[in-house]
């Protein structure tokens, strides 16, 4: 059973994710784990099945989100609490303007990162408190949790070797930081096995994709069209 939403957080007007017409999937894991690749593979497969598919990411899934992404990942002098609040602001806007409307009309939404990233990165690795960060983000999203969270688990040292281009603020953190992130993701998955699927991200991308879609298939609603 998924953890309860803390008392005092207003529920979604249309109910929790399980009561919405669509299906909400988040992809989590450290940098270089292949989240974007798996999101795009899922998008093609789900489209072929006849679903309306919304592929998105956090931060940056909306116009405002792209501004916030630049600030939080590439801005100067962003302290941990400001960082946590910027992510929560992006998430609140993302859910209200993109994720929730898509779920209400029956679409399948696949996001590259969601609130578990904030719990692992800011709550655990930044020492701001996992429960505090989780509560902040549940409040920001009115308690919306994914039907399925796929944790693409990978040794951070391997993830660093996979990255290309100029690293952002989080990618530049120490190996120890990223090891703490990985361990907390695994702790989150162990605490909520009904929501999480843990996949070895060191496997070939197609093998990872097949493992995810085999798990996801029975959870999908009938195609909206």
Automatic annotation (TrEMBL):
CDD domains: TMPK (cd01672)
Protein name per its UniProtKB record: Thymidylate kinase
EC top class named in words: transferase
Annotated function: Phosphorylation of dTMP to form dTDP in both de novo and salvage pathways of dTTP synthesis.
HAMAP family: Thymidylate_kinase
PROSITE patterns documented for this protein: THYMIDYLATE_KINASE
Catalytic activity: dTMP + ATP = dTDP + ADP
Pfam families membership: Thymidylate_kin (PF02223)
Swiss-Prot/TrEMBL keywords: ATP-binding, Kinase, Nucleotide biosynthesis, Nucleotide-binding, Transferase
Family: Belongs to the thymidylate kinase family.
Binding site for ATP: 29-36
Keyword Endoplasmic reticulum: no
Encoding gene, per UniProt annotation: tmk
Positions of the Thymidylate kinase-like domain: 27-211
Signal sequence region: none
Gene Ontology molecular function terms on file: dTMP kinase activity
UniProt-listed Enzyme Commission number(s): 2.7.4.9
Taxonomic lineage: Bacteria, Bacillati, Actinomycetota, Actinomycetes, Micrococcales
């Amino acid at each position: 059973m998924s953890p309860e939403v803390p008392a005092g957080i207003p529920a979604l007007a249309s109910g929790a994710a399980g009561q919405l017409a669509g299906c909400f999937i988040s992809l989590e894991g450290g940098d270089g784990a292949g989240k974007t690749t798996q999101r795009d593979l899922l998008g093609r497969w789900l489209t072929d099945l006849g679903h309306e598919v919304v592929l998105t990411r956090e931060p940056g899934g909306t116009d405002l989100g792209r501004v916030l992404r630049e600030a939080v990942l590439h801005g100067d002098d962003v302290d941990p609490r400001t960082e946590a609040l910027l992510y929560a602001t992006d998430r609140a806007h993302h859910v209200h303007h993109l994720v929730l409307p898509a779920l209400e009309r029956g679409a399948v939404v696949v996001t590259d990162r969601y609130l578990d990233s904030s719990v692992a990165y800011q709550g655990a690795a930044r020492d701001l408190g996992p429960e505090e960060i989780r509560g902040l983000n549940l409040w920001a999203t009115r308690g919306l949790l994914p039907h399925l969270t796929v944790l693409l688990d990978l040794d951070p040292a391997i993830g660093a070797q996979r990255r290309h281009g100029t690293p952002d603020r989080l990618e530049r953190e120490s190996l120890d930081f990223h090891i703490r992130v990985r361990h907390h993701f695994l702790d989150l998955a162990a605490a909520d096995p009904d929501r999480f699927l843990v996949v070895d991200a060191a496997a070939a991308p197609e093998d990872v994709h097949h493992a995810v879609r085999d798990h996801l298939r029975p959870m999908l609603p009938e195609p909206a069209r």
